[in-house]
Here is the input.
Amino acid sequence: MKATTRLRQALAGDAPIITGGAHNGLSARLVERAGFGAVWVSGFEVSASHGVPDANVLTMTDMLDAATSITRAVEIPAIADCDNGYGNAVNVMRTVEDFERAGIAGICIEDNIFPKRCSFYAGVKRELAEVEEHAGKVRAAKKAQSDPDFVVVARTEALIAGWGMAEALKRTRAYADAGADLILIHSKAPTADEVLSFAEAWDRDVPLVAVPTKYPDVTVDALGAAGFKIVIYANQGLRAMVGAAQRVLGEIVEKRQARCIDGQIVPLDTIYDLVGVPGLKEQEKAFLPAGAPPVTAICLAAGASHASLAELTADRPKAMLDVKGRTILARQVEVLNDSGVKDIAVVRGYRGDAIDLPNIRSYQNDAWESTDEAVSLFAAEQELRGRSVVLYGDVLFDRSILEKLLVHDADVVIAVDRAFHERPHGGPADLVTFRDAPPPPGTRYISGGEGAHRLAAIGPDVAPENAHGEWIGLMVLSEAGGARVREVWKDALAREGKGDDPGLAPAASTDEAKLTHLLGALVARGVDVACVPVYKGWLEIDTFEDYRRAWSQVP
Ligand code: SPV
Ligand code: MG
Here is the structure.
């Protein structure tokens, strides 16, 4: 239904329409949410919002802009304060056309001369237009409207100017006779007596409008009983905002931080809601290309280091070791970011407080001394909901390796180095055998040309002579893959809880479980773990010897 028709319907009801002043879309939304029946595009508020007095300093188009943002923001009908119509009757006609097009349900024009002065400014020049001139504007406005439901409110400033009740009545009768739909009788008296006496004397069949700014004691119902059909609370919202902002801003400057004003300001979510962020999300979902689903990286950096690195890692975990000016973790983050993985979580444990990279989420494995990788991974369980990259905190790898895994569509994908024979090994290696016969050792895979193999067995127990490669400590899980891993873990915990073997052999308990044990358990359940073959291009920093090698090999 059109705003004009809604306003007409509300006017046909018994109760007065409680109307709230606004100056933009947000303030209008506050008016609407508070339960007002209509919004008043207030010249006073719009002027104030520009930091200028309410004195025709702004132009008609400034007011039209504000009115447009208001009608776009709310469902309730808007009545625009059009001052004196921004000129003579000719200007009024153009004003009506423009405001009608902006979806305004009605305008109000007052009998101030141009340029006007706000009704409440003391000590300023106050002159009123001739009665005939203003009646002419009312006739022009009614003639210019194209929608028969559009409302023209005629306002007299006779009582404001101190010209008396007789003058106010003379003027408003003329405006009613010129076709005004409502009469606004404005008063700056401290009680409602003046407007109530006016209403008492009012002898036209045209309803009245009140603006109880200076006489706030009167109730909407009392005004309604006296014949007022619209009651405008013209600027209380703005004054509330100014009061709150003055308090809060002053306190921030005084205390030099913002914590002190917690509780005095609304949470950001309140603003998100007011400006329609939930709708924005819906629109994005409905109309933007889905693109690749976001990927979260989970870096396991909880464990302590090998004895040979004890001195270097006395105050930090291995992931925070510096390799030629950047830490291992910073280098990992860079490779992840370069491959489009921006969402990164780190599981901390040993010296976790030393992990201080910006833009990463942190989880804590407090039991890092007595538990292993699987417990660390599940400290960040909530990150396993979508697609994820799981990596050890002590490996450096080429971006091309990660990208090979990311383009793969299997639910569980691991990177397996086929050149493992050539790699110097400090500690035990996670060797891998494939279920299917691989090409002969030394085969160089060409990126994109090879399929993945399927995992048969993984871990340091795989005999080198049976191994087809070495897992580099990097895996990618789809949403379903993550769900399977969680399922394995949940079952293991449940079994263990009942005193049974957790099913993560060779780990005897969930505390001892490594990622290789989770992978083995997936295979045992018939899950295909895709092994993407790679040829070197990575480093594991386990021992001091590895660390020294990293310094010589990393660019
Ligand atoms: C306005 O809100 O701009 C009005 C009402 O005209 S008042 O300021 O009370 O005069
Ligand atoms: Mg005004």
Observations:
- The pocket of sulfopyruvate (ligand 1) is lined by residues 21, 42-44, 54, 81, 118-119, 211, 213, 234-235 (CB under 6 Å).
- The chain has two domains: 3-242, 295-553.
